[in-house]
Specification:
Two copies of one chain form a homodimer.
Chain A lengths: L11 H8 L3 H9 L8 H14 L5 H8 L4 E5 L6 H17 L3 E5 L11 H5 L3 E4 L5 H9 L4 E3 L15 H13 L4 E7 L5 H17 L3 E2 L3 E3 L5 H11 L4 E4 L2 H13 L9 E3 L5 H5 L6 E4 L1 H17 L12 E4 L2 H4 L1
Parallel strand pairs in A: 1-2, 1-3, 3-4, 5-6, 5-7, 5-8, 8-9
Antiparallel strand pairs in A: 10-11
Helix pairs in contact in A: 1-2, 1-3, 5-13, 8-9, 10-11
The first copy, chain A, binds a DNA duplex (30 and 30 nucleotides) through helix 2 and helix 4.
Chain lengths: ~325, ~325
DNA sequence: GCGCCCTAGTTGCGCGCGCTACCTAGGGGT
DNA sequence: ACCCCTAGGTAGCGCGCGCAACTAGGGCGC
């Protein structure tokens, strides 16, 4: 049974005293230090004592002595892939926790309003990003003592190369093309926080449309709170647009909603496809076609990269193998 | 201009050497230690040197010496209040960052699948919860060296007392009662991760209905992926239920969607009210009535509590003053 | 008996910072 | 001349742990 927690925390010295060995021996046992032989008998006594006394190593002291912390910071752009990604990350967090690492996720890539990035205040040992960081961000991390950064600075230059950005946008367009649409619009969101990501997705979509010989109309931002979505739908419809590529499922819902309110039929008068396959896509009436990425695999990959940086373990899967595909629903199929 | 970062990090000893004073003096200046007078001239030289050399204090060392970390962990139940809460917390994070604290939020209260709670691996100085923690959780925190826990163990016993739990559920029922509904159903979600919270909200709703002399039917869990929502809607409608209180907006959308697909009119044949006023509530067609809490004020309060625990600053606002109200939309108003 | 190696440990330093206790020069009151 | 006070510092310990360098105590070949 664990003893009543005294005012002072249990340190490794307490265990040493309790067992009757030196503090170093305790450390060797608890850390299973390679290259150190400790007899099975002693090892057992140390472990028993640690459990009985309720020993928890002092993070600050361990970090200081080791010269690095055990925090891994994961930076996701926007709320890319949203709730499903979060859930999938649990598995990665579990694996990392087993190795003694804490996984902290920062949902938005670029916090606004003068909030210092988490890596400055947390002191993570590793920062993993979905996309590449800007040179300023890298400098800030380095100054804050972050030793390992992934993707490596300059490894993959921009959002365009990150999985699920250009890929998903192209698939949206391909899907509409296959269904016979020849004149499409791209809908974005009025959010300064993710201009970059939106821009990249929109560019990829436009480019793909051009490759396929489709016509596109100018990018428009919609917001369900003002009249912009209703206006956009009216303009598009008058302009002969038959389908809309939306930045994400919220935008798709906004557009589809505005179309329905305007008396148009979705998808007969205006088809809509979203991105990320978030809950709203399947809950909306009609259900929204969307792009789904294999978040489980993505999370597994990110965890593997993190463990590689932290522990030196080999990375098994690869980024580019990520499965991305269209989830066709009634908002395009009718 | 900041110098090129050498291999070794800049320590306060480097500054001391650079300025020509002792390390203690550097510490006094950088921490503005109360009760220590340092001449303005020396202070300026230290600060200049720190900036020039790009000094960043070593968190681990500071934490060790201080005996406490500068991490504040915020535990939110479920994804209560979802994205809006997250956004509102930014302000709190900024204030805390100014005081040198890192705010880490853990979205779900009780992680599943053997993931150790973040407080074990992160070593936060303060843990703030939206609701009270279980005795086991408190013990686990204590063992992990967490010194300050809010709400204080035993301060407010259960979910029922947390703001936005019973309150919101009662308002949902009140709203339906005012609109003339007399026989209602309560819809939950099939998610083991938040049984407690759902149970509390459902209980509060049922109890309120009874107080108002309304009839209720048994609680049902719905899931849009199987046929359970369609079945629930059919049963409810056959049973004379005219309105549904949903655990959250996703559940409300599920129910409303199933009703529409079944050819019922929302709200004429079946009214639905959600909770949290998440994006889907306003994007759905018809837009869903919901419960909105003042997340800005909530976040401000949580930040104030955190700062109080960390810094000893007084707490100005109060928990109970939180503004919770119905956002009436077409899913109940018609 | 002697030198050698191997096992199972121990001693002790260093990590970088917070902070208490101490020191010193100069000034003013008596 | 003496003492005391204060501003403006300095010396150095302690935090708990990781780990390198060292060592006591055998077994073993020659």
């Amino acid at each position: 049974m664990p003893e009543v927690a005294a005012s002072r925390r249990v340190t490794s010295a307490d265990i040493a005293k309790d067992v009757g060995v030196s503090r170093a021996t305790v450390g060797f046992v608890l850390n299973s230090t390679p290259g150190k032989k400790i007899s099975e008998a002693t090892r057992a006594r140390v472990l028993e004592s640690a459990a009985r006394l309720g020993y928890q190593p002092n993070r600050a002291a361990a970090d200081l002595a080791r010269g690095r912390s055990k925090i891994i910071l994961l930076v996701l752009p926007d709320r890319l892939l949203g709730p499903s990604m979060q859930a999938s990350l649990d598995e990665g967090a579990r694996v990392l926790a087993e190795a003694g690492y804490a996984l902290v996720t920062q949902p938005q890539a670029r916090p606004l309003g003068g909030i210092p990035p988490l890596w400055e205040t947390l002191g993570p040992d590793v920062v993993i990003g979905w996309t590449t960081f800007t040179p300023e961000e890298v400098m800030s991390m380095r100054a804050a003592g972050v030793r390992r950064i992934r993707p490596r600075p300059g490894e993959s230059a921009r959002y365009d190369q990150a999985p699920g950005v250009a890929e998903g946008a192209r698939m949206q367009v391909d899907h509409l093309h296959e269904l016979g649409h020849r004149r499409i619009a791209v809908a974005a969101l009025n959010d300064p926080q993710m201009i970059e990501l939106q821009r990249s997705r929109a560019d990829a979509a436009m480019q793909r449309a051009e490759e396929l010989g489709m016509e596109t109309v100018a990018l428009r931002s919609v917001d369900h709170r003002d009249g912009s979505s209703a206006e956009a739908v009216r303009i598009w419809h008058d302009d002969g647009v038959t389908a809309v590529v939306a930045y994400n499922d919220d935008v798709a819902a906004t557009v589809a909603g505005a179309a329905i309110e305007a008396g148009l039929r979705v998808p007969q008068d205006l088809a809509v496809i979203g991105h990320d396959d978030s809950p709203i896509a399947s809950l909306f009436v009609p259900p929204l076609s969307s792009i789904r990425m294999d978040t489980v695999e993505a999370a597994r990959y990110l965890a593997a990269v993190a463990l590689h940086e932290a522990d030196g373990r080999p990375v098994t899967s690869t980024w580019t193998a990520l499965d991305t595909r269209v989830v066709a629903r009634r908002s395009t199929l009718g």
